[in-house]
């Protein structure tokens, strides 16, 4: 058990609320997604006990091992989607944030239909060369149209990663591109901001920040797929 996850959760949530209020927005409009990848289930459980409502995971197998050990929480898939895992992803998660190509969206749509469910999804945008995944902003309209054509998917907005190791201005410019793309394709969820760049993200209009190490501490080295 790590000392202080509950305190860290409360301190982080108040820092976010304060930043959001400073911009004249309502803190209730910003969801904090704790990112539990390569974090022990005990830490994640402590954050949920302290009030964390949303959990993001990047690796399907790790998530499936961890979820049975946790209290109820909304589960977001934020990792790379392999199309042959679409069915397991749709069955395991409540929201899929990382739909970055038509093939993955179609596979998820089919999987959700077989489950008799409507799956909320976000379109993952690539706004920086340091991100390996994501749809280019100039191809987002076409992907959004494909996703809206899947009866069992509900496209709610976009997700993106900021540039790794960039200065604050470059981060802000990338996030503004994500906000502009969301305004163009439509949707209400702007999932941007991680441990190192959530303040810039909130200033660009983020409605959902995804925070791992800033909440749970350093990740363990173990590889999970
Ligand atoms: C790992 C990860 C995060 C959280 O990163 P931290 O730097 O630990 O906050 C957020 N989003 C995605 C897509 C991730 O893979």
Draw up the topology in text:
Blueprint: H1 5-22, E1 31-35, H2 41-50, E2 54-57, H3 60-66, E3 74-77, H4 86-92, E4 95-99, H5 102-115, E5 119-125, H6 140-148, E6 153-160, H7 168-185, E7 189-191, H8 198-203, E8 208-211, H9 213-216
Parallel strand pairs: 1-2, 1-8, 2-3, 3-4, 4-5, 5-6, 6-7
Helix pairs in contact: 1-2, 4-5
Say what the CATH topology is. TIM Barrel
Shape descriptor reads globular
Instruction: Decide which structural class fits the backbone.
Output: alpha/beta
Unreliable segments (pLDDT under 50, ≥5 consecutive)? none
Overall residue-averaged pLDDT value: 96
Helical segment tally?
9
**Beta strands, count:** 8
| Small molecules bound | pyridoxal-5'-phosphate
Report what the structure shows.
The protein has helices at 5-22, 41-50, 60-66, 86-92, 102-115, 140-148, 168-185, 198-203, 213-216; strands at residues 31-35, 54-57, 74-77, 95-99, 119-125, 153-160, 189-191, 208-211. Strands 7-6-5-4-3-2-1-8 form an eight-stranded parallel beta sheet. It has one domain: TIM Barrel (Alpha-Beta Barrel). The mean pLDDT is 96. The protein has nine helices and eight strands. By secondary structure, the chain is α/β, with parallel strands linked by helices. The protein starts with a helix and ends in a 9-residue tail after the last helix. Helix 1 (5-22) crosses helix 2 (41-50) and helix 4 crosses helix 5. It binds pyridoxal-5'-phosphate. The site of pyridoxal-5'-phosphate has 12 residues, from strand 8 and helix 9.
């Amino acid at each position: 058990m790590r000392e202080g996850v509950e305190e860290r959760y409360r301190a982080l949530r108040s820092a976010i609320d304060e930043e959001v209020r400073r911009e004249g927005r309502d803190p209730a409009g910003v969801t904090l997604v704790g990112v539990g990848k390569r974090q022990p289930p005990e830490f994640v459980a402590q954050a949920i006990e302290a009030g964390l409502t949303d959990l993001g995971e990047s690796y399907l197998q790790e998530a499936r091992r961890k979820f049975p050990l946790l209290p109820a929480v909304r589960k977001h898939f934020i990792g790379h989607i392999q199309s042959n895992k679409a069915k397991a992803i749709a069955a395991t998660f409540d929201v899929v944030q990382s739909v970055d190509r038509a093939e993955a969206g179609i596979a998820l749509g089919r999987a959700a239909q077989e489950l008799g469910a409507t799956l909320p999804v976000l379109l993952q945008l690539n706004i920086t060369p340091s991100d390996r995944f994501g749809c280019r902003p100039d191809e987002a309209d076409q992907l959004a149209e494909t996703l809206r054509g899947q009866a069992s998917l509900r496209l709610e907005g976009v997700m993106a990663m900021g540039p790794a190791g960039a200065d604050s201005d470059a981060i802000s410019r990338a996030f503004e591109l994500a906000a502009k793309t969301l305004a163009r394709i439509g949707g209400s969820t702007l999932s941007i901001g991680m441990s190192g760049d959530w303040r810039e993200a909130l200033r660009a209009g983020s409605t959902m920040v995804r925070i791992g190490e800033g909440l749970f501490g350093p990740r363990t080295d173990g590889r999970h797929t």
